[in-house]
């Protein structure tokens, strides 16, 4: 068989043919060497197993090869015509394996060697280089390894070399460049070929195809490839090539395909690629290119495939893409490209694939895309598209895949899409689509995947979906779907994934789901499904993952689950499943994850579970499991996480757990475990988290942590561990959380802890640690929180000060004190005994006040009871101006005192610096005196809390009888009655602050006293004095007796008498006059009459005593004794003693208690329930309350200044447990409704309790009593029936019902079943129909029942399940300001509150529930707008704490824990880390479940540590917004003060906290109230953190103008200011604003200079201290012109700015300073001509010096290229001014943006600004910025405003200028939200322009933020940090705010901030 001299033999030849050949004579034979090479190939590659091996073996003798001379019959072998040599070997896809034999090199005449698609391994033989006649070498798709032989370069005849799809490694041989005839070189898909592309490949001038993709090639693309003039395919994708695309590639005129995707190429895409006119495929995606799509690509008219995605492409999609008419595939995905889709893309009628996903595209999706009728795949996902889904997409009949997911699309799915019958994949998830799911979805019969999750679809799941017989994936989770799950879904036989979770679905799980035989994933979590789990789910034999958590499922786990043999993950957590844990789950051998947490399971863990071989995660937390933890858990050796927390496990921790060698997380917290930690746990070398908190574990903590290197978290708190902290903890290199609080640890902090470089949180609080805080803790670079309080630690080094300053650690004020440096002891200490048991100390400061006296700090008073006794700290006086101290001593002992001075720390430094002690002084003898009667009930007893810093002492009232002679001399000088407490007892609150050294009869300025009522007393039947009702005393002034001084930290209470008592006589026989000090007597006084004084009821304020007993050393049986004596005022002159003796025992200590004080004890009388209403008709709400076990109702009057005073009550016939106040009879006066413990409602009309005809001393009788059908656990009185009458609504926990009783008679009504244990009730309008709906917290069911009001008092109930654990209270308020009231739910068992947001359609967003967690157990909540900003806030009370948590809402409707409020003292702001008294703050105190702690008014001033601060100023208070950012490491307290312009009058204050890293953005009127909107006022702000900076913006309410600048700080005050701009004439005005920040007045001298520097006018004025001056230039400086400037000189530093413009456009400009540095100044922004709107830029320069100067002015493009005519030189005389339009100055006629430089040479004194705006009269915006030098590298951009408000879209832009023509700058821009949380960080490169090397480079970039950071499209609030990270110093930055219509536009200079 012949042909062209070559005969191919590859098939079976018949016997006849063989015979014929033999008859003709034996043919010539191939050489033996070649025959042997073929045999070697056969044997080496498994020839007997080849797919085809015809004729290789002899017939009948398979052990021998065919006869010589017949090799030409062998399969795959071709010889020449004469059969003398082998010419071809072709064994493609023939099952060859093994290695290629070296002898193949003997086939020297071989022209073709093709062995593709086999399984060769090993290397390519070097001998192949001998095949000099070889033209084709094809070894692709094998398993060849090793390098490419260099010898292949010797194959000079080679035309095709294909080695692709192997495992070759090493470099491409340079020798391949010798193959001059090579047409195709294919080395792709080896992945191991590395090194660079040889330059020599450029020699392959015949090459048409070069494929090197999918390797590890690096380096740049050789420019020599441009020599390959015949090249048609260049494929280099999937390597590590870098550098830019060589321009030489653009000369490859024959190129059809260029594939460079998936490399590391950079730089811009060369525009020269547009010259490749024959190009059909261009793939450049997944590189590091920059810039935009070159316009030249429009020339590629033959292009069919274009892929440009996956690099930081900027700009927009070019419209010319629509002209590339041959395109069939367009992929521009994963870019930063922004803007909208050009509608021109709709012209690409051949397009089949369009992929634009994961970019920053926005706007509506063009309807024109509906014209792409050939389209089969469309992916626009992960962009920012808005608007509806396009109707026109219904015309895309060929579409099989549509993905629009992760956008902001809204509205329904269009009905036109019903025509997409070819659709197989539809993904619309993560949008805002709404409406019902279309029924026609069930008609898309080809659909395989339907993904509609996380939208807002409502209504039921359509039954029609069951028609989708080919559907494999159905994901509808995260919507608002309701109703039940259609049973018909069970017919979807092909379904593999079903996820319906996070919806409002209810009802039972359909049994039919058990028919989904192919299902491997089922998720129905976070719905409201109820009932049992269907047995049929056990039929899902292929199920791998099953999630049913957070529903209301009940019953047990079905036994059929034992059939789920392939199940890997099972979560049934958060339901109501019960019974024992099922043993049959132990049969699920494939199970890897099992979560049954937060159910009702009890009993023990089944032993069968120990055999689960694959189980990695076992979560059983939050059940009722008990008994010991089973030993057999140690056999579950695959476990990585074990969580048994929050159960009832007891006994010890099994040592067998140490066998779990793979365990990473062990959580056994909150059980009842005891004993020690087993040493075997030290074998858990993979453990990363260990949580044993809240058990009873004891003994020493094992020192085995050095064997546990992976530990990242340790929590051993709330146990009974003793001993020392194990040093081995310091070996844990991965530890970030270490918490061992509340144990009994002793010793010091190990120095080994300093090695933990990763530790973020370390807390050893509440132990018994001692010694110094190791300074080596400073070696822990990431430590963020350190809590060491409640120990005996101290620290001593300055370095440690700075470390803890950075850490911001809040050391408790009652713990050990830190002292700073310069402190001297006082002198002249004198101790005088005033009377037995009472002493007074006096001394002199050193240095004296006024001589280097710091004023900060105070004194420590130390006392020794007798010689040899221990010196003890008696008191701390926090004021160096105080030079006296009064206290008590032990009578009859030789008492001694000594003092030392301290100065408070700076920045919370921990070094202790105090003075030496004064010499001790003993007590001098007292004087004598006479007595009067004092009445005290001395038989009282009570317990005390020895650990509490503040408690109400359980003592009695002290009644002082005043006979006429007692204080007869008080008329000539005030007398003071001293009530001294026992030694070491101090007061813990402040009620009065009068000065005992001041003789003034009434308080001095700044003092605060309280008048005490003088009343008439008689003795009662029990011998105790009682006030006489109705007595009206005359002749006694209203201030006769005053509570003068009652100060926290002091040891005595001072009462002052300022009138002579000589004329004080009682009106009735058997009575006496006196007054009472109520020392913490609970509900004292016993009748309302005792609180009557000269001013009527309530004239006497409460004087309850709160004390600190921690240092007193009381034991059970000790008496709490007080001593009374009197002195004149001032001084310590002794009066005759009013009474003598050792004092009076107010109570006897019955027991000494430890631990936290119960809130009800701490706050006095417990209150069972309360409500408010205006019972006295004064327009202020009063407090009405009932107390446990008492037949009384109490009320206290509300004050217009805040707080409540006085107390009165009425005796009742019943014991009330609930009280409500409402008008039930329609007389507009509040009535009282009580419910008693027997279930009866009592109605008391107003007149019965408060009217003139009230019952008097007898018991009040209810006007109506109604027997209730249950016991009241909570109630509300409101009109729910709409008839105008108040109705009574209550919860009945016993009957699990809600009862509604219609008013006014409260009979009849309706009953509604709730879930188990309804304990709390709230009313609110949850759906916006104006009718009050109801919500009930069901504690036992972990749910909330919502009852929707139909308007007639009838309700439809719905259960919100799974809201959290143990809801015990709730309240309603509109948190997100959408007009629907939301719910705040107290979740006691979670230690959290949950926020349920109401949404449209009578629903709540349970899936989006927000939770805020606390360390203590919350028990009560009030929802109201407490801070006056955003929506409703939540005030949370706690059952186990006297503190409140105030959670405030932000503009997005998110709550955050902002404040912690201490109801026992002044307001404590925890986040600042120290006690702070807020000015005039009204604190509502709620604590302890249904217990009201009381309502108190706290007054005072801001008290902060003496530390670095910041002081900022606002030029006006009206129409001004601001943003302050706290860049410090600690939270800052912001105290804002509103001042009047004149007199420095302080009008209002407000105090708030700015957390570390957070932004505080407000309108001043929103913080300081409407008073700030008045004219003639300004504001300053005192900030306790120095690293706080900000900006302010001036604007009117309609936002017709907007401009701003940085906020001037205290250090910016100057004595000389320049105002360079003067706008006058027509509607234009210029206003100067000057502020004097000091208290002293200052004289101002104004000078007006003309353009040439001549003085035109002068003027003087005086600016008050803390005053402001606002001047209209035209009115105050006659004859002012635009060429003039104004300078102001001041005696003291002042601030200034000017506002200029007209009514529609106002610019603000910070006044220039007098010390302008030399050097170049820059105007960072110049805009000229038509840039969408016409722009004009005005340059203003002023010479502030006394000498003339010349300035060179240069205008630059963004690339840094000077414009023609630069520089322009101008001369300025001394104080002269130059002002010009920049366009005219540089003769510019075209539109232009750039920057300007002003170079004065060596001269100093140049200042100026650039002002730009819309050109022409009536321009809509105007903005001005000062010229600035290149001085700073780090800037704060203080606000972000992107998105829509109302109908206006706003943007934030920024500009960065690096005016350096030699060096590049890398600018890092980082975005944070308003809470300081990281949002995004990106880098900007600014580098010099070079026409050839860097044509796209710029020195200035101006861009919109949402284009640079696409995720920041809709954000109002937050800030940016801009940092120059290059060595080239100095950049300029400014921020742009405006709307897209350019009605307003403001350029605000960024604030320079230090590192």
Which SSEs are present, and which pair or pack?
Elements: E1 6-9, H1 15-23, H2 32-44, E2 57-58, E3 61-65, E4 77-80, E5 86-90, E6 97-99, E7 112-114, E8 119-121, E9 136-138, E10 145-146, E11 160-162, E12 167-171, E13 184-186, E14 192-196, E15 209-211, E16 216-219, E17 233-235, E18 240-243, E19 257-259, E20 264-268, E21 281-283, E22 288-290, E23 305-307, E24 329-331, E25 338-339, E26 353-355, E27 360-363, E28 377-379, E29 384-388, E30 401-403, E31 408-411, E32 425-427, E33 432-436, E34 449-451, E35 456-459, E36 473-475, E37 480-483, E38 497-499, E39 504-507, E40 521-523, E41 528-531, E42 545-547, E43 552-555, E44 569-571, E45 576-580, E46 593-595, E47 600-603, E48 617-619, E49 624-628, E50 641-643, E51 648-651, E52 665-667, E53 672-675, E54 689-691, E55 696-700, E56 713-715, E57 720-723, E58 737-739, E59 744-745, E60 761-763, E61 770-772, E62 785-787, E63 792-794, H3 798-807, E64 827-835, E65 838-844, E66 858-864, E67 872-877, E68 884-888, E69 896-902, E70 921-922, E71 934-936, E72 941-945, E73 951-952, E74 957-961, E75 975-980, E76 986-987, E77 992-993, ...
């Amino acid at each position: 068989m012949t042909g062209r001299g070559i005969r191919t033999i590859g098939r079976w030849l018949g016997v006849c043919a063989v015979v014929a050949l033999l008859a003709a004579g034996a043919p010539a034979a191939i050489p033996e060497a070649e025959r042997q090479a073929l045999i070697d190939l056969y044997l080496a590659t498994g020839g007997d197993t080849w797919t085809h091996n015809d004729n290789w073996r002899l017939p009948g003798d398979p052990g021998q090869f065919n006869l010589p001379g017949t090799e030409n019959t062998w399969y795959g072998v071709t010889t020449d015509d004469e059969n003398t040599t082998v010419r071809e070997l072709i064994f493609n896809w023939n099952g060859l394996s093994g290695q290629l034999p070296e002898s193949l090199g003997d086939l020297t005449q071989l022209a073709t060697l093709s062995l593709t698609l086999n399984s060769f391994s090993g290397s390519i033989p070097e001998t192949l280089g001998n095949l000099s006649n070889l033209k084709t070498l094809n070894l692709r798709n094998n398993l060849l390894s090793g390098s490419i032989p260099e010898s292949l370069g010797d194959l000079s005849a080679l035309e095709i070399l294909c080695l692709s799809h192997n495992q070759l490694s090493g470099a491409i041989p340079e020798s391949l460049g010798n193959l001059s005839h090579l047409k195709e070189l294919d080395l792709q898909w080896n992945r191991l070929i590395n090194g660079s592309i040889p330059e020599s490949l450029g020699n392959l001038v015949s090459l048409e195809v070069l494929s090197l993709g999918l390797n590890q090639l690096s380096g740049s693309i050789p420019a020599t490839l441009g020599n390959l003039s015949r090249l048609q395919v260049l494929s280099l994708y999937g390597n590590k090539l870098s550098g830019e695309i060589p321009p030489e590639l653009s000369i490859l005129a024959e190129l059809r395909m260029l594939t460079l995707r998936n490399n590391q190429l950079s730089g811009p895409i060369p525009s020269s690629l547009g010259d490749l006119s024959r190009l059909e495929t261009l793939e450049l995606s997944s590189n590091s290119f920059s810039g935009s799509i070159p316009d030249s690509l429009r020339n590629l008219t033959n292009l069919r495939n274009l892929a440009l995605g996956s690099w930081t492409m900027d700009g927009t999609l070019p419209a010319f893409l629509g002209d590339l008419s041959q395109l069939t595939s367009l992929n521009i995905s994963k870019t930063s490209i922004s803007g909208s889709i050009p509608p021109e893309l709709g012209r690409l009628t051949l397009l089949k694939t369009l992929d634009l996903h994961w970019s920053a595209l926005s706007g509506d999706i063009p309807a024109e895309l509906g014209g792409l009728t050939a389209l089969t795949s469309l992916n626009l996902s992960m962009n920012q598209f808005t608007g509806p889904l396009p109707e026109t997409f219904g015309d895309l009949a060929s579409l099989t895949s549509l993905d629009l997911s992760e956008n902001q699309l809204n509205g329904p799915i269009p009905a036109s899409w019903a025509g997409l019958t070819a659709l197989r994949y539809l993904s619309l998830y993560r949008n805002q689509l709404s409406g019902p799911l279309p029924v026609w979805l069930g008609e898309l019969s080809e659909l395989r995947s339907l993904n509609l999750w996380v939208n807002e679809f409502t209504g039921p799941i359509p039954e029609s979906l069951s028609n989708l017989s080919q559907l494999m994936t159905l994901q509808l989770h995260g919507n608002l779907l309701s109703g039940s799950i259609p049973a018909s879904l069970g017919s979807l036989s092909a379904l593999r994934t079903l996820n319906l979770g996070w919806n409002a679905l209810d009802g039972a799980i359909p049994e039919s789901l058990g028919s989904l035989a192919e299902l491997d994933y089922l998720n129905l979590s976070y719905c409201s499904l109820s009932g049992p789990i269907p047995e049929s789910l056990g039929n899902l034999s292929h199920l791998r993952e099953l999630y049913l958590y957070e529903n209301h499922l009940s019953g047990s786990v079905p036994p059929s689950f034992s059939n789920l043999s392939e199940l890997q993950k099972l979560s049934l957590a958060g339901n109501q499943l019960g019974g024992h844990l099922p043993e049959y789950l132990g049969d699920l051998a494939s199970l890897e994850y099992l979560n049954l947490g937060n159910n009702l399971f009890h009993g023990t863990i089944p032993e069968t579970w120990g055999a689960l071989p694959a189980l990695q995660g076992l979560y059983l937390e939050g059940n009722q499991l008990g008994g010991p933890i089973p030993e057999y858990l140690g056999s579950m050796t695959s476990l990585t996480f074990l969580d048994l927390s929050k159960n009832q496990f007891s006994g010890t921790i099994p040592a067998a757990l140490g066998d779990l060698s793979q365990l990473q997380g062990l959580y056994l917290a909150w059980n009842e475990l005891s004993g020690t930690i087993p040493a075997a746990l030290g074998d858990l070398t993979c453990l990363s988290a260990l949580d044993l908190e809240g058990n009873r574990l004891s003994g020493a903590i094992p020192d085995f942590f050095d064997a546990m290197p992976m530990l990242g978290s340790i929590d051993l708190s709330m146990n009974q561990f003793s001993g020392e902290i194990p040093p081995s903890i310091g070996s844990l290199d991965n530890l970030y959380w270490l918490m061992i609080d509340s144990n009994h640890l002793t010793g010091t902090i190990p120095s080994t802890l300093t090695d933990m470089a990763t530790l973020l949180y370390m807390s050893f609080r509440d132990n018994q640690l001692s010694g110094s805080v190791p300074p080596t803790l400073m070696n822990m670079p990431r430590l963020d929180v350190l809590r060491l309080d409640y120990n005996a630690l101290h620290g001593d080094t300055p370095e440690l000060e700075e470390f803890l300053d950075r850490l911001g650690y809040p050391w408790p004020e009652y713990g050990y004190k830190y002292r700073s440096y310069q402190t001297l002891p006082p002198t002249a200490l004198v101790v005088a005994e005033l009377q037995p048991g009472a002493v007074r100390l006096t001394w002199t400061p050193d240095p004296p006040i006024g001589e280097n006296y710091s004023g900060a700090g105070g004194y420590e008073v130390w006392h020794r009871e007798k010689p040899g006794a221990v010196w003890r700290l008696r008191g701390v006086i926090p004021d160096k101006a105080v030079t006296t101290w009064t206290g008590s001593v032990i009578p009859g002992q030789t008492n001694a005192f000594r003092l030392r001075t301290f100065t408070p720390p700076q920045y919370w430094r921990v070094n202790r610096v105090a003075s030496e002690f004064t010499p001790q002084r003993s007590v001098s003898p007292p004087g004598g005196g006479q007595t009067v009667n004092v009445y005290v009930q001395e038989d009282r007893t009570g317990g005390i809390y020895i650990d509490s810093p503040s408690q109400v002492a359980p003592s009695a009232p002290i009644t002082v009888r005043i006979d006429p002679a007692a204080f007869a001399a008080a008329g000539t000088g005030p007398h003071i009655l001293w009530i001294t407490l026992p030694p070491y007892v101090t007061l813990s609150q402040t009620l009065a602050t009068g000065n005992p050294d001041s003789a003034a009869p009434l308080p001095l300025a700044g003092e605060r006293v309280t008048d005490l009522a003088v009343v008439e007393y008689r003795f009662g039947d029990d011998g105790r004095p009682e006030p006489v009702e109705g007595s009206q005393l005359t002749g006694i002034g209203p201030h006769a007796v005053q509570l003068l001084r009652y100060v926290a930290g002091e040891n005595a209470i001072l009462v002052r008498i300022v009138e002579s008592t000589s004329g004080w006589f009682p009106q009735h026989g058997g009575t006496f006059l006196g007054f009472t000090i109520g020392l913490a007597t609970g509900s004292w006084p016993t009748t309302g009459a005792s609180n009557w004084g000269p001013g009527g009821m309530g004239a006497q304020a409460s004087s309850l005593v709160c004390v600190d007993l921690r240092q007193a050393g009381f034991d059970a049986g000790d008496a709490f004794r007080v001593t009374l004596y009197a002195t004149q005022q001032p001084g310590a002159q002794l009066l005759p003693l009013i009474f003598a003796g050792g004092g009076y025992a107010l109570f006897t200590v019955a027991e000494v208690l430890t631990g936290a004080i119960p809130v009800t004890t701490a706050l006095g009388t417990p209150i069972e329930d309360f409500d408010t209403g205006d019972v006295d008709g004064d327009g202020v709400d009063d407090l009405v309350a009932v107390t446990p076990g008492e037949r009384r109702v109490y009320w206290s009057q509300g004050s217009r200044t805040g707080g409540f005073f006085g107390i009165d009550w009425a005796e009742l016939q019943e014991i009330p447990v609930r009280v409500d106040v409402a008008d039930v009879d329609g007389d507009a006066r509040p009535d009282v409704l009580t419910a008693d413990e027997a279930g009866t409602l009592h109605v008391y009309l107003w007149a019965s309790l408060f009217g003139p005809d009230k019952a008097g001393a007898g018991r009040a009788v209810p006007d109506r009593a109604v027997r209730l059908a249950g016991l009241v656990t909570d109630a509300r009185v409101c009109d729910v029936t709409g008839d105008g009458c108040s109705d009574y609504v209550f919860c009945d926990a016993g009957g699990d019902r809600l009862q509604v009783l219609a008013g006014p008679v409260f009979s009849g009504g309706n009953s509604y079943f709730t879930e188990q244990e309804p304990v709390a009730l709230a009313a609110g309008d949850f759906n916006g129909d104006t009718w009050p709906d109801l919500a009930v917290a069901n504690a036992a069911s972990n749910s909330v029942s919502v009852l929707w009001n139909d308007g007639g008092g009838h309700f439809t109930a719905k259960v919100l399940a799974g809201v959290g654990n143990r809801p015990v209270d709730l309240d309603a308020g509109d948190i997100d300001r959408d007009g629907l009231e939301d719910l705040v739910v107290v979740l006691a068992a979670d230690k959290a509150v949950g926020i349920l947001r109401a949404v449209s359609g009578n629903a709540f967003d349970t899936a989006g529930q927000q939770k805020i967690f606390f360390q203590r157990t919350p028990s009560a909540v009030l929802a109201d707008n407490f801070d006056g900003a955003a929506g409703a806030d939540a005030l949370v009370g706690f059952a186990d704490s006297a503190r409140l948590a105030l959670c405030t809402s932000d503009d997005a409707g998110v709550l955050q824990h902002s404040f912690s409020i201490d109801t026992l003292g002044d307001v404590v702001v925890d986040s600042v880390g120290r006690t702070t008294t807020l000015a005039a703050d009204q604190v509502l105190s709620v604590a302890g479940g249904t217990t009201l702690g009381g309502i108190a008014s706290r007054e005072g001033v801001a008290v902060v540590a003496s530390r670095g601060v910041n002081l900022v100023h606002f030029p006006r208070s009206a129409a001004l917004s601001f943003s302050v950012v706290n860049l410090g490491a600690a939270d800052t307290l912001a105290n804002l003060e509103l001042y009047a312009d004149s007199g420095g009058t302080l009008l209002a204050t407000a105090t708030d906290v700015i957390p570390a890293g957070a932004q505080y953005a407000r309108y001043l009127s929103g913080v300081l109230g409407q008073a700030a909107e008045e004219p003639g006022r300004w504001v300053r702000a005192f900030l306790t953190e120095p690293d706080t900076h900000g900006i302010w913006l001036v604007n009117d309410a309609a936002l017709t103008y907007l401009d701003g600048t940085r906020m001037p700080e205290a250090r910016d005050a100057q004595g000389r200011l320049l105002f360079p701009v003067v706008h006058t004439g027509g509607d234009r005005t210029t206003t100067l604003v000057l502020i004097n920040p000091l208290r002293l007045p200052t004289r101002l001298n104004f000078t007006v200079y003309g353009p040439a520097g001549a003085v035109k006018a002068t003027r003087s004025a005086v600016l008050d201290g803390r005053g402001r001056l606002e001047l209209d230039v035209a009115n105050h400086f006659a004859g002012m012109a635009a060429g003039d400037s104004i300078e102001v000189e001041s005696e003291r530093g002042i601030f200034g700015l000017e506002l200029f413009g007209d009514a529609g456009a106002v610019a603000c400009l910070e006044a220039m300073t007098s010390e302008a540095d030399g050097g170049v100044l820059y105007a960072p922004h110049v805009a000229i001509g038509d840039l969408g709107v016409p722009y004009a830029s005005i340059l203003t320069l002023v010479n502030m010096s006394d000498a003339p100067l010349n300035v060179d002015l240069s205008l630059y493009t963004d690339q840094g290229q000077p414009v023609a005519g630069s520089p322009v030189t101008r001369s300025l005389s001394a104080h002269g001014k130059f002002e010009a339009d920049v366009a005219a100055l540089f003769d510019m006629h075209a539109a232009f943006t750039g920057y300007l430089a002003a170079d004065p040479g060596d001269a100093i004194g140049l200042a100026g600004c650039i002002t730009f705006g819309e050109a022409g009269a009536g321009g809509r915006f105007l903005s001005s910025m000062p010229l600035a030098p290149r001085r700073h590298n780090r800037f704060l951009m203080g606000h972000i405003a992107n998105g829509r408000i109302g109908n206006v879209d706003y943007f934030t832009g920024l500009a960065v200028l690096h005016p350096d023509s030699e060096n590049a700058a890398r600018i890092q821009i980082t975005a944070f939200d308003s809470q300081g949380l990281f949002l995004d960080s990106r880098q900007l490169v600014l580098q010099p322009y070079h026409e050839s090397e860097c044509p796209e480079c710029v020195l200035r970039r101006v861009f919109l933020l949402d284009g640079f950071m696409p995720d920041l499209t809709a954000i109002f609030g937050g800030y940016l940090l801009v940092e120059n990270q290059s060595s080239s110093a100095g950049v300029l930055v400014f921020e742009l705010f405006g709307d897209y219509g350019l009605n307003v536009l403001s350029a605000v200079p960024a604030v320079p901030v230090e590192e």
